[in-house]
Structures are given as C-alpha cells and as structure tokens.
Design goal:
The complex is a heterodimer of chains A (about 180) and B (about 260). Chain A has about 180 residues and is an all-alpha fold. Chain A is built from 8 helices and no strands. In chain B, helix 9 runs antiparallel to helix 10. Classes of the chains: A mainly alpha (about 180), B mainly alpha (about 260). The interface between A and B is large, with 44 and 56 residues.
Chain lengths: ~180, ~260
C-alpha cells in the first residue's frame, strides 16, 4: 500500500495521528486517568458516524448480526437511544446483550469498562422507560451496581442522571418485594 | 560505547538504543568514512525539519539544500557547537534549532556547499519535493516550520516502523485493518468505513476480534513513539514532557524558546 507522508496535514489532523502514539490506548481504569475515560465515554455515546467510535461501530456490527438488527443504530447516537423513552425495547435489549458480550472479549480494559457502562445503561433505560427488568440480577444487586457506576469519577453526567433514576426504581421495587 | 556499536532505533536490526547525542559525540575528526556515516544518520532524521525551516526563512530550494548539507557538516565536524551545549539543559531538537540559527548567522552564502565541502564528504539528500506548509503553522511562531516538520518526521517514522513490525510478526492483517479503519481516514480526512465492511474485506468473523486487532496496533504505536522521542531527549523522564510539548505545539500554542 502506497505510503503517504504526514507532511502537509492540518495541525488537527497531525494532532489526531500524534495522539495515536502519544495517548495510552488503554487508559488505566481506576488509575487516575478519569478525564481521558470520561472523554472516551462521551465520544462513544455521542457519535453517529464511525469516526472515532470504534466501540460504537463494533456494537453496531454485533447488533446488525442479530435478527432484525440491521441498521438498528443508524443515525442515532447511543446516548439518544438509551435516554429516549421512545426507543424500542428490543433494541435496548440488543444493546444490553451485545455490550455484555463485548465487555467479556475486549482486550482493552478501558473499552471493557465502557462496554459494561453501556450494558448497565441499557438495563437502566429499560427499567425507567419501559418498566421492564431485562436482567436476572435482583433489584438490590442492580441498585448496588448502579451506585458503583454513579460514583465513578469518569462517569458522564447524562448517565449519572439515568443511573440515579433507575436506582430509585430498584430501591423502591426491592422495598416493595 | 564504541561509535561502531550504535544503530538506529527501529527495525529488525536494532541492537541497543542510542540517542542523537551519542551519535554526535561518537563522530570526530580524522575518520571521514565514519563521520560521513554519522552525518548520514543525522541527515536522514533531521534534514527535513532543517530544510523546511530554511525554505521558510526565504532560502530557495538549492540554497536551502546547500545550507542543510553545510550545517550538518559543520555542526558535527566542528563539534564545538555541540560541545558548548549542555545536553542536560534541553532537548536535542531545541539544540539543533539554536545551532542552526547560530550557523545561519555565521555562514557565508556566496560560497556554495559544493565548493566548501569536498565532494566525497557530501551526503546525498534524497527527498521528494516538500509539500505546502499549512497556513496555521506559520501563525504559531518563527520556529513553527521546523517543529512541524520535526513532528511530521516523527509520525512518519512511527508509522513506518510499526507497519514493518506488524508485517514481520504475522500481523499484516492487523496493520491493514488499522490502516483502513484509522490511518487512511486520518490522512485523507475522510469518514472511516464501517467495521462490518472491513471485517468482510479481511475475513474477520467477529467484531470484537477486529476491535482487538486495532487495539494491538495502537499499543505498538505507543511504544514506537516513545522510542523515537527517547532518541532526542537525555533521559526516560523527559519523554512525557517532550510529548506534551509536541502536543501543545499541535494544538497551535506558541512555544517559548528554551
């Protein structure tokens, strides 16, 4: 494949390429690099196009391989899908299943953490917007998991709100049981 | 360390790491063949930043080439320019630029490099025509063309080395996938193709496998960049600071001269 020099690229293009080598491709989860993780998570949640969103693209590919899943994430960000009451429950379920599978197979610890976050966000979304528990975990266990995520220094505000509301539902349901 | 023991970092033939400081101190008068080889090494790594800087200072192509040749001949062979500098006080690229400015102040431009330097001592400057410097670079500061070309060379070497590594270690598909999904879109300023398309192209059955392959290449890029940056600083502890400085430059921030 023909080699192309980086000379002549705009500064922002050069910066992106430099970041490939300069930035840790696997910022330590819990290792103090919260800003980088938060930015990564925000990027995954707000991208539609594949650019800069390998995790989203991977997830989309997995969902597309499911029956009826082709194009399910087209033109919508993960954030829009997870936070909207209008999102289809079967799509939320697919996001949950695929992100769980991703979190078990990715080599990158950072991406694994992001995939797990999306997994719980899907569960929280189903609980809040569809009044449906799509996990076999108990409400107590789920509330604990959501609390841990809320307390992560790298968690993004929009998911903190989602997790807090879902946790309230869990705590209420656990109390009612 | 003997001068003959050094080798460039990168590639299958690397033995032990050396820095450009050690290269320069290894050169010395009296051995034209060795000096020529060392100049060749330094020229390969640094001719472009020096040449770009000279072009943007107003020197025409041939004059800039002559001055580039002359600068490396004088900087290395005269050694006193380097010997006076304290490697503990600055990065190699900063020293190089300072030395270049001193050199330009002293050189007599009427005499061409071919007249002053014996033909057998000249090192061929093989290069394609230098492309246009982005306008934004000029607004950062007078040293910006040098820094820009420096970073460009660093990136080109990093990418070249990692591609070679991947191809040497049975990771050719890893590289090709990374190239199509990350590198080419970045170089050509285009949207990356969907992962599904690339998985089909390269016969990768699972999305996570593709994601992990790209991650593996990024890991190697991180290692390569650190190795190349290490060549131009005096100790491992300076690597992070140098990388940060270069990042700030790419963010368009004016840099203080050191």
């Amino acid at each position: 494949m023909a080699k192309k020099s980086t000379y002549g690229l705009r500064l922002d293009q050069m910066a992106d390429l430099f970041a490939l080598g300069a930035d840790d491709p696997d910022p330590a989860v819990g290792g103090g690099d919260d800003t980088t993780l938060r930015e990564l998570l925000h990027e995954q949640l707000t991208c539609t196009a594949p650019k800069g969103s390998l995790l989203l693209d991977t997830l989309a590919m997995m969902i597309a391989s499911l029956e009826g899943g082709a194009g399910a994430l087209n033109d919508q960000t993960l954030s829009e899908t997870l936070l909207s009451p209008q999102s289809d429950l079967s799509l939320i379920q697919a996001i949950k299943d695929c992100s769980k599978a991703l979190s078990c197979t990715l080599d990158s610890q950072a991406e694994t953490a992001l995939a797990r976050t999306v997994y719980f966000a899907a569960i929280a979304s189903a609980l809040l917007h569809h009044d449906t528990k799509i996990t076999q975990s108990s409400y107590e266990t789920l509330a604990e998991s959501l609390t841990m995520l809320i307390e992560k220094q790298w968690m993004v505000p929009e998911l903190i709100e989602l997790f807090m509301q879902a946790r309230q539902v869990c705590q209420r349901r656990a109390h009612e049981a | 360390m003997k001068a003959d023991d050094y080798t460039r970092i990168g590639g299958a033939a690397r033995r032990f790491p050396s820095t450009h400081w050690t290269l320069i101190h290894a050169a010395g008068p009296g051995d034209d063949a060795r000096s020529r080889r060392i100049i060749g090494e330094l020229l390969q790594d640094y001719w472009k930043p020096v040449y770009c800087y000279l072009r943007h200072r107003g020197h025409k192509n041939e004059e800039a080439k002559d001055l580039t040749q002359g600068f490396f001949q004088d900087v290395v062979l005269r050694r006193d320019l380097i010997q006076r500098a304290d490697p503990q006080r600055g990065r190699f690229r900063t020293l190089l630029l300072t030395a270049l400015n001193h050199y330009l102040a002293n050189v007599h431009r009427r005499q061409t490099a071919q007249k002053r330097i014996p033909k057998q001592k000249l090192v061929p400057l093989e290069h394609a025509e230098i492309g246009e410097l982005p306008e934004a670079v000029r607004t950062i500061g007078p040293d910006a063309p040098f820094q820009y070309a420096w970073v460009s060379e660093l990136l080109d070497k990093m990418l070249e080395e990692v591609e070679a590594e991947c191809r040497d270690h049975g990771m050719a598909t890893h590289w090709d996938l990374f190239h199509d999904r990350v590198l080419r879109p970045a170089l050509e300023d285009k949207t990356p193709p969907p992962l599904a398309e690339l998985c089909a192209k390269y016969g990768i059955a699972e999305a996570t496998k593709a994601s992990n392959m790209i991650f593996a290449v990024k890991r190697r890029l991180q290692g390569a960049l650190k190795r190349f940056v290490r060549q131009s600083v005096t100790c491992d502890e300076e690597i992070s600071a140098e990388i940060l400085e270069l990042k700030q430059f790419l963010a368009g921030k004016r840099q203080c001269s050191r």
